[in-house]
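As described in the Methods, two query proteins were run sequentially through the folding procedure within a single session, without resetting any intermediate state between them. The first query and its resulting structure tokens are shown here.
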Amino acid sequence: MTYTKMNIMGQLPDRQTTEPGRPRPVRVIHISVQPKTWLGKLLATILAAALMLIAFFLSIILFVMIACIIVVAIIYVIWASHRAGRRPPDQVIEAEVKSRDID
């Protein structure tokens, strides 16, 4: 059982279609946040400088935290290797040597 083009088109709801060779128009929304007045430009500059300063301080804090973790890890490795390399104190074990006679 084959469907013809007319039979399939007859089942679709009635809608107006555009011409097949013509693309449908696309809606593009442009949002501009550029300030237009001198006060807006001043506030935008102050806000940008404040955000950059906050980012700079956060990067310094992150650097210090990572450096502290690395220093603690290095100190731990040195301490663990030093502790493992120590010799136990000299201990004297007293014992008798028994001889066995082999016949």
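Immediately afterward, the second query was submitted; its sequence and tokens are:
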Amino acid sequence: MKKIKKQISKLASGAKNKVPEKWQPHLTRKNIVVGVIVAFFLIQYLQVASMTGGLTSLSLKGSSLVDEVGKLTEVSQMLGEDLNEVRGYLLLSTRQYSSSDSDVSSSAADENENELQISLFKYVGYLGDIERKKAAFEKNQSLLASLDSDSELSYFLEDKELALGKVLDSEEEYNLVITDSEAGDILEFTLNKETGDMVLETVLDSVSVVALDEDEFKVNVLNYLRDNLSTILTTIKKVEASKVYIVDSFAKQEIVDLIAAEKLTFVIEPHQNESALTYDIQNVAGEVVAQVILNLEDFSITLHDSRDEENILLQVTDLETSVPPFIEKLDVLPAVQKKIIEAQLVLADTFEDEGFKLLLEENSLYVDYVAREDDYRFYYDIFYGDTSGVLLGSIVIEKSSGLVEVVGPDGADTMNLLFFEEGLKKKL
């Protein structure tokens, strides 16, 4: 330390003799020390800025990210060592500026422990969920079985000419129905074997069954029937009357003939959700092109064009007069047939294109614009010269899919025209 101070003093004395006289009072040993420290930190700053610029241009220079990070770590360690030397000269305590390998290992270990912890949580939650579903299933199964031995419910059912069926076991669920002598099934319990959940379903609604014990369950079922039986029976009668009206309307000769002419099918059996019954009208390919919807809340009937982009529902009061004009406006073509027609139009436009004609002429080629066909394809043959020349291949439209492909003269070597690239296809 004494040698350093002596050198600084010597430097200060020598410098005073070489600078103008007006600056000599400021050229002290203390000021020189401060200047050296400032210059040192400025050099270190420039080094770090240079490395930061190198990282920014990684993608442009194609450098390896791992190598650059390693260099940055090395520079950071060197900078820390240099700073500690300066702090030692200024009689300040040194610091640890770099992260050790143990810190990295510790971080990785913590991460692994967290992943293990999360997986353990998931597994324990899974086991608990399985047991919960199992307990719920066993409980609800017991609740269903208890209805058969409830004397008060039996008396009510007998008085209302209702009957409690047997529990039916299917692959995915248990079912138990209560039936009316005239209206048929009026209430159904469904117990899901996988989830253990049970619902009570009627024409009015679908209700999740939640009961603490068998007595509460029996009371709830009996109260539900007392409160809703009349409405259920009335609603069922209205629904059945509406179903008969819809089916009878589509049995009218005018509508039957129109449906046959358009190669359509009216599906007599509807599918149901909580709010509606829906009858499908299908084209020859089995695709749903229209629907007749019976609203179960107000018993209104609407016609729906399934291919209408605006998704408009047409509410009607007289099906016999409303259905014919509705069907006549439907897009009934199968999707594949529409693709075939679209492909034919595109090819026809291309064949008439002046640029395409010029391309054929320059290459001494001829395309037969009138397609030949077999059971599977439409063929637009390509000849060298004219139709009397060599058949080089064909542009084909697949009848099963509407795809446009190219094939060799023997109909083999099929390739989708959209994926054709020079070099991928063997020379014809």
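Residues 101-147 form the longest helix (47 residues). We note this only descriptively and draw no conclusion about the first query from it.
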